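Ticket reopened. Same input as before:
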Amino acid sequence: MQSPKVALRARKDEATEARLATLTLPETGGWLDGLRADALSRVRAMALPGPRDEYWKWTRPETLISPDVTPAALFKDDEPPMFDEVDRLKIVFTSGKFDAEASDDLSLEGLTIERLAEAGATDLHWARDLYGTLETNGQTPVERPLAALNTAFATDGVLIRVTGKVSKPVSLIYRRESEASEAILHHVVKVEQGGEMTLLENGPAAARFNKVLEVEVADEAAFHHVRTQARDHERRAATHIFARLGRESVFKSFTVTMNGVLTRNDCVIELTGDDAVAHVAGAALGDGDFHHDDTVFVTHDAVNCESRQVFKKVLRNGAVGVFQGKILVKEGAQKTDGYQISQSLLLDDDSQFLAKPELEIYADDVACSHGSTSGAIDETALFYLRSRGVPTDQATNLLTLAFLAEALQEIDSEELSGLILARLEGWLERRRG
Amino acid sequence: MLEIKNLHVKLEEEDKQILKGVNLTVEAGKVHAIMGPNGSGKSTLSYVLSGRDGYEVTEGSATLEGEDLLEAEPEERAAAGLFLAFQYPVEIPGVGNMTFLRTALNAQRKARGEEEISATDFLKLVREKAKTLKIDAEMLKRPVNVGFSGGEKKRNEILQMAVLEPKMCILDETDSGLDVDAMKLVSDGVNALRDEGRGFLVITHYQRLLDHIKPDVVHIMANGRIIKTGGPELALEVEKNGYADILAEDA
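Engineering reply: fixed in the latest deploy. New output:
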């Protein structure tokens, strides 16, 4: 008789093969072929996630790995797309493919941009060294098979190399045209020493979206990232960020998520150079059929680095929020300053927040703190506002925005945080009364 | 202005009667003070009038300019012109003082069918009122009451009062936690708002606040009722002899 463990693995292998049968390796040629084949064998070795996996306890992976895509209705609203007001270089992906007509000319001082779909033929040594490398590193100690799947099967994406201080953000815009669409995109960014860039992401990519972003931030370089996940209520998305930080570098990533049936955002950061700073933050607002999972793993492997994880979730009408965050301080990573907070505001009794904060420390001279809370609106504050004439629903919104404020403060740019705030206000306003 | 008749109130959670038939009328343009020993029901009266949860009115009525207060939501009472200066002003992290004030003022205006105030006019209004209360720009920028000293919190209450211009102001132990200078500042703020169209109900333990805010009428409250009413001299009597004599008279 098979042991339960072997049977479990057999079921996972079966599900993995069923999924793989629906995919073909893209023929991008050249150096990419070997990396894709490697990734595919890693997928088979790990198998795609199953509901018994430790880091999939609270988020069901079935619809993310099933052979068929669950269709998602196209979302209609009359709000202008996010970041429309921002002076930026636009790169548009329509139905998972680079859309040259809708995009700007891909040239900007201080960086070069290549399309993944065309990169195989060119010998981009820097990209060859990075594509799938940070993803592979990020597979230990916790496996992330969906990211390996992405490395193998990504149909498109951008490879951005930053050599200077870039004057305006590069903006990745996703669009989708059909209800049963699927997109697998893989972006690689290398910020060379002293370089600086801001990457924006927004728009509904697909009914089911698998995206990987690998970022190498070299010594004294800076990478800023702001993205929105919104305007497609029925989407299912699994995204990964893998970042490696050099000496005195800065990495800051902020994600705002509004609705979405299933969103799993993994962020894996490795601080490898002394005096580096990594902040990753998110604000998620869910109403009804909403499941949002932030899974973060920050590794300190250098001296005097700072990391912050700030995640806030507003949940109502049965929405579910998950946070799995870890700070790992390796031996010798002295003077580490690590901070982690995950909080949820539950606007009714039906909503749920599940959190697993973890610290693992092998150095003796560090300051690490973490906290996690779930709570309702503060009744005393609510009464105070009402006693000054502010109606209950408006007062609730004001207190909700106040709850989110700490996460929003993680966005350095006032312009961008102002735009995000306006979207949050709009979301709350539409649900008043 | 404010008319309270035979008001009986009990705690919702437990079967405990706090107010046992309060009768009180505050006329426009007048300052009434309520004094009384601990546990007499003074603060409960202010909470019930402003609409805080947890209390049940079992009998009696309270009206503001003839309109029923007790059935109205707290925000409706505020829009109708009622203001309670809290004994313990609430800290609200993440909400800026200015945002809070503007939201409150505009919500009240909207409820009354008035135009919202423009950002420029609002700024002008607040700066002018803040100056007389010695509230600086830094305090206006900070989150509501967060990191404020006791005196700053009370000044902030009076600033809200000055900006919202209510018809009926209730001050719940506004003197508690204030030093002499702060008390003077707060009192000056209140006195500046004294007006023939506005009524005040000042709840306090001590006579000293009434040296600064001179009342027209003083009530003594004990055991959930007003047991004696008189002029300012009544406050002085309490200061001198305590409540014992008056309580004995009532018994």
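Chain A has a mean pLDDT of 95. DSSP finds ten helices and 20 strands in chain A. Please confirm and we'll close it.
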